[in-house]
Design brief:
heterodimer; A: Jelly Rolls; six-stranded mixed beta sheet; four-stranded antiparallel beta sheet; B: alpha/beta; Rossmann fold; five-stranded mixed beta sheet; kinase activity (chain B); transferase (chain B); thiamine diphosphokinase activity (chain B); Thiamine pyrophosphokinase (chain B)
Amino acid sequence: MPLFFPQEGASDVRRRYKPDVIKGDMDSIRREVLEFYASLGTEIVDKSHDQDTTDLHKCVTYIRDSASGLDKSNLCILVVGALGGRFDHEMGNLNVICRFSYMRIVLLSNDSLIHLLPRTYCHEIHIQTSVEGPHCGLIPIGTPSKSSTTTGLQWDLNNTAMEFGGLVSTSNIVKEEKVTVQSDCDLLWTISIKKL
Amino acid sequence: MLRLQSIKLAKAKHLTVPSPSSLRLVKKRMIAMDLMHHSSCFLLPTIPLQRRPSLTYALLVLNQNLPRFTPLLWNHAQLHLCADGGANRLYDEMPLFFPQEGASDVRRRYKPDVIKGDMDSIRREVLEFYASLGTEIVDKSHDQDTTDLHKCVTYIRDSASGLDKSNLCILVVGALGGRFDHEMGNLNVICRFSYMRIVLLSNDSLIHLLPRTYCHEIHIQTSVEGPHCGLIPIGTPSKSSTTTGLQWDLNNTAMEFGGLVSTSNIVKEEKVTVQSDCDLLWTISIKKL
């Protein structure tokens, strides 16, 4: 975080950007980092005994079940750092957003944004053209789609079947400020983030 | 059409008639299917001689930062292709692996045989440099329906002359990271060409498909890969997958996105076996040496 504010002292930046909670296995966090944030009042939640779920899974569960003082009626969880690195980690993180399909969870990297479009809804995606697009995709992750329909894309789907090994909508282009999507299965929506 | 070689020798060892009770055992079930062997020999400095027919490697460079072992893969490959912007990466980054040498000398030594694709990313001076050295430039800018990786795999399958394709393995760098839709498009290419050996490589991971029509033996090169691994039912739920050699083996276990997906698994033995009712992606971590 201090690298984004080179004119300020690193300590000042770190104090300003202090996490409320640090949670997980605690097998990666450096000792001095843990002590620094603990001394500032960050809540440390050690779940090192639970090896069956990923760090992302643990944190989403924590937010869903524990985080007090948070209005959860219209919650959206923004996640950075879930993509890139080890591929099995990335797939595990995609699986977390599939498992928590009833929650809004957005994965973000420098290049892309990803979130789930659950099949139980028709979706309207309002494109913020100043910061995202035009490259986009719809990914039938985990289950073939017999029928998906879109509007607002260069290559719209029209009751089109999609599956890995066949058609997957990638390198598509957003053409209008509103994109609509309807499908018989959960799809991952992805859109490029502009480099400004 | 490339065909995967069945391992007649291994099958001959299993010519016992199974009793009904023994049919539940994993090893005896492997009689019904051909075996497909996998080994990341291409990550070793020297590829060891093996009983099995050796593979011919083609290297494909896509438009992301080159992994640190790219020169090693280059040396093992008989065919070297760049997909469009991958030529920029080769030109800019190969000299960085050889800081004591002149950049021009490195670029001449690591000259691709073919550059193929849309040609909307490659820089003009890079194109001219390699063209002047004799690299074949295959411009497919009119074909917008397939990704650069798809075009290159098709080219290798259909056109590349002088290449022994009977036991071909295509090594791909630059297919992961970057735009997520590109990454998914590239994974879809290896699903579509499920009858070909295509390995996607990054600094952190290696990925290839395990087609459902085979029992798989994966010989782990512990000096360069592991222990972290995973099995991903990328496109279709698996009703039943079975493994040996992993910390958390599957035993007729169902897997699907939204449910169980085997990630953060650990390789426990030097041979891992996998059998499934659907195509799985195998992924293993690459050691940082």
